Amino acid sequence: MSNSTLEAVPVLQPAGTARDSRPRHSLWTRFVMRFGGAVVRGLVLIIGAFWLLPTVGLAVASLRTSADNSASGWWTVLTAPAQLTLDNYAQVLQNERIIGSLWNTVLITVPSTLLVVLIGALGAYALAWLDFPGRDAMFVVVVALIVVPVQVAIVPAARIFRALGIYGEIPAVVAFHVAFGLPFAIFLLRNFFLNIPRDLLEAARLDGAGELMIFARVVLPIGWPAIASLAIFQFLWVWNDLLVALVFATSENAPITYALREQMRSFSSNLDTIGPGAFLSMLVPLVVFFAFQRYFVRGVLAGSVK
Amino acid sequence: MTITPDPAQDLRPTSDERVIGRASVAGGPGDRHRTVRPAPRRSRDARLIAALFLGPALLMLLVLVCYPIVYTVWLSFRSGDGTRFVGWDNYATMLTSSNTRRAILNNLIWVVVAPTVVTVVGLIFAVLTERLRRASALKAILFMPMAISFLAAGVTFRLVYDEDPNRGVVNAAAVTVHDVFVDPSRYHGMDVRDNREVVSVADGFETRGPVASGQVIQLPLVGLPPNRIPADAVAASPPPAGPGLQGVVWLDFTRGGSGQPGVIDSAEVGLPQMTVEALAAGGEVVATTHTDVAGRFAFPELTGGPYVVRLPADNFAEPFNGITWLGPSLITPAVIGAYIWIWAGFAMVLVSAGLAALPREALEAARMDGASEWQTFRHVTVPLVRPVLIVVMVTLTINVLKIFDLVYVLAPEASQSHATVVALEMYRVSFGGGLDYGLGSALAVLLFALVLPAMLFNIRRLKGDR
């Protein structure tokens, strides 16, 4: 395959002008074929640097004192690296509000993820392999619910939680996340479970295994790639959420996104808290991203329909 | 590090011939198994078991999704506190109130611009990275923004877009580029002392009264910080005697305060490269010159008089200080820019999967026929990956309709009413102080109605798979 770039656009040779059987290329195309690889590589490097720039900027700014940040741009570290300091991080790690809200994020995210995977897998198995009336219609409804925006449910859900006496508490936030995570979870897992060879299930049934046993011993082990992708997607979805927390959590149950959003009111003067705080909140997603990249990409891509 | 070209492929235990767009909303791939039914003797038990398996999920969905949808529709026809039935009033308010209209208009801009741009950028990235053997590091960089929250992205871009060129990298670049083409003025911010020979006028500074040749015109200025004193400036000195108008412009300030106002003290420097104009009695400029390193200037050809000598305002023009990206007028494009940063990697990975699945023969055939790279791309590659592009566009459109966090975080309080979108306005109206659940519910219903086509699209694809 020859090398080329989109830069070949301006000089086009009409096709069919060739007299011999070999394709004729313009001077530009031949230039591109020879040097295109280097051009593409250079271009790609520039794009990569460009895409990294915002994150690097925040990272560097979070490592500078607020005095430095108001006096000069973060890029001055290139000439004066001595200004980098961990002071802001030391401060933020002492900050009870930030640390407390990070812990709240964990308290919200872990149960939300586990419950969605468990409840979703049970439901998905029923929709895939159990026979009961209305099964297919029920699946259509589940698929329909995937794209429902949370806005359409938050006001009534807040009233339900208030009636139950859990409004503002972490269980309310978890319950809402679980409910809105389920349609996609069931959709993803049901499609995966459907592809489990029928013979395996039938063999287990003939051996006298109950449905719960089949679910635990056959379906879950075979389905784990899909479950992993789902779990990672759901974990990040909840970890990164702001809106649900804003509506259903009181300030003392606020996750990190909520706590940092409060600080945004005066961005410039709070940059020494917001910068490190945002980086701490990004740490877990980034670790998940680099550690489980395959499942991560699959989960995010599959879940993008939400 | 690997980002699999087809992310959905490994989600299926059995191989499947349909690869393109798998990650999206397609229905069950394996419906060929569905003809199997459990043995009849189990059917009564099976219903009970199914109810047990599905029970928790159905309960959650009914209580926290289905019932609230109906409730919200009901609320949208009631007053803000829910006590009275008001018919279509909330919907009428939604279409007439300036805030909600702006929200709807902004959502329209988002839907038209963002998915298209993201898809095109993703396509370009996919084509570029396809030509590199080891592009996985780059793909990881481009995809990474998908991992972080909209809040973190919002924080990141607040800094990127910061108005102060000393903080925001975009404005730093803008100012640098601007200063390449337009020389920044050296003396912005300078002023005159009160009751001296120089007065401030609309066009700069000029001599208090008319001057004539033979006189040494003294133009003392103040207000130049030490770090902006030109490097080539030397001690100010009055010009030597000669014909015509002559004078000196200098920084009439001695550090430590020992200097005397209006007098050229020994430590005071001249202001070089200052434009000086001489005006005739009628006010027209008759001559222009520049000061030398000691601040001296001369108009030897101007004899007689009277003239007025002026230092035009160009000398003191305020420098370009960057663009207010997060102000009312540019806020929506700025937020869309951040959105592109987040989602371009997503589009790239999906399009890459599509490209990897292209039949090589078609491309080779086009090349053998003498098509150029661009023609091959335009007439073979793009039509073949069209299904993927459509899936990406639909996915992004759904996503963009519901955009909330990014706008809420990135737009400063002052420009939020200019940046607002339907999802944000719903939150603002219902919870952000207004507590108008009627109007909020009407906005939520609008949002729901907007995603309905996507819902039908999903269901149709599911049925199509059967």
From TrEMBL, chain A:
<dbReference type="Pfam" id="PF00528">
    <property type="entry name" value="BPD_transp_1"/>
</dbReference>
<feature type="domain" description="ABC transmembrane type-1">
    <location>
        <begin position="102"/>
        <end position="292"/>
    </location>
</feature>
<feature type="transmembrane region" description="Helical">
    <location>
        <begin position="137"/>
        <end position="158"/>
    </location>
</feature>
<keyword id="KW-0472">Membrane</keyword>
<dbReference type="InterPro" id="IPR035906">
    <property type="entry name" value="MetI-like_sf"/>
</dbReference>
<dbReference type="GO" id="GO:0005886">
    <property type="term" value="C:plasma membrane"/>
</dbReference>
<comment type="similarity">
    <text>Belongs to the binding-protein-dependent transport system permease family.</text>
</comment>
<keyword id="KW-0813">Transport</keyword>
<keyword id="KW-1003">Cell membrane</keyword>
<dbReference type="InterPro" id="IPR000515">
    <property type="entry name" value="MetI-like"/>
</dbReference>
<protein>
    <submittedName>
        <fullName>Sugar ABC transporter permease</fullName>
    </submittedName>
</protein>
<feature type="transmembrane region" description="Helical">
    <location>
        <begin position="214"/>
        <end position="239"/>
    </location>
</feature>
<feature type="transmembrane region" description="Helical">
    <location>
        <begin position="274"/>
        <end position="292"/>
    </location>
</feature>
<feature type="transmembrane region" description="Helical">
    <location>
        <begin position="31"/>
        <end position="53"/>
    </location>
</feature>
<dbReference type="GO" id="GO:0055085">
    <property type="term" value="P:transmembrane transport"/>
</dbReference>
<feature type="transmembrane region" description="Helical">
    <location>
        <begin position="170"/>
        <end position="193"/>
    </location>
</feature>
<keyword id="KW-0812">Transmembrane</keyword>
<keyword id="KW-1133">Transmembrane helix</keyword>
<feature type="transmembrane region" description="Helical">
    <location>
        <begin position="106"/>
        <end position="130"/>
    </location>
</feature>
Automatic annotation (TrEMBL), chain B:
<feature type="transmembrane region" description="Helical">
    <location>
        <begin position="108"/>
        <end position="128"/>
    </location>
</feature>
<dbReference type="GO" id="GO:0005886">
    <property type="term" value="C:plasma membrane"/>
</dbReference>
<keyword id="KW-1003">Cell membrane</keyword>
<feature type="transmembrane region" description="Helical">
    <location>
        <begin position="48"/>
        <end position="70"/>
    </location>
</feature>
<protein>
    <submittedName>
        <fullName>ABC transporter permease</fullName>
    </submittedName>
</protein>
<dbReference type="InterPro" id="IPR050809">
    <property type="entry name" value="UgpAE/MalFG_permease"/>
</dbReference>
<keyword id="KW-0813">Transport</keyword>
<feature type="transmembrane region" description="Helical">
    <location>
        <begin position="388"/>
        <end position="411"/>
    </location>
</feature>
<dbReference type="InterPro" id="IPR000515">
    <property type="entry name" value="MetI-like"/>
</dbReference>
<feature type="domain" description="ABC transmembrane type-1">
    <location>
        <begin position="104"/>
        <end position="458"/>
    </location>
</feature>
<dbReference type="Pfam" id="PF00528">
    <property type="entry name" value="BPD_transp_1"/>
</dbReference>
<dbReference type="InterPro" id="IPR035906">
    <property type="entry name" value="MetI-like_sf"/>
</dbReference>
<keyword id="KW-1133">Transmembrane helix</keyword>
<keyword id="KW-0472">Membrane</keyword>
<keyword id="KW-0812">Transmembrane</keyword>
<feature type="transmembrane region" description="Helical">
    <location>
        <begin position="338"/>
        <end position="358"/>
    </location>
</feature>
<dbReference type="GO" id="GO:0005975">
    <property type="term" value="P:carbohydrate metabolic process"/>
</dbReference>
<comment type="similarity">
    <text>Belongs to the binding-protein-dependent transport system permease family.</text>
</comment>
<feature type="transmembrane region" description="Helical">
    <location>
        <begin position="437"/>
        <end position="459"/>
    </location>
</feature>
<dbReference type="GO" id="GO:0055085">
    <property type="term" value="P:transmembrane transport"/>
</dbReference>
<feature type="transmembrane region" description="Helical">
    <location>
        <begin position="140"/>
        <end position="161"/>
    </location>
</feature>
<dbReference type="InterPro" id="IPR013783">
    <property type="entry name" value="Ig-like_fold"/>
</dbReference>
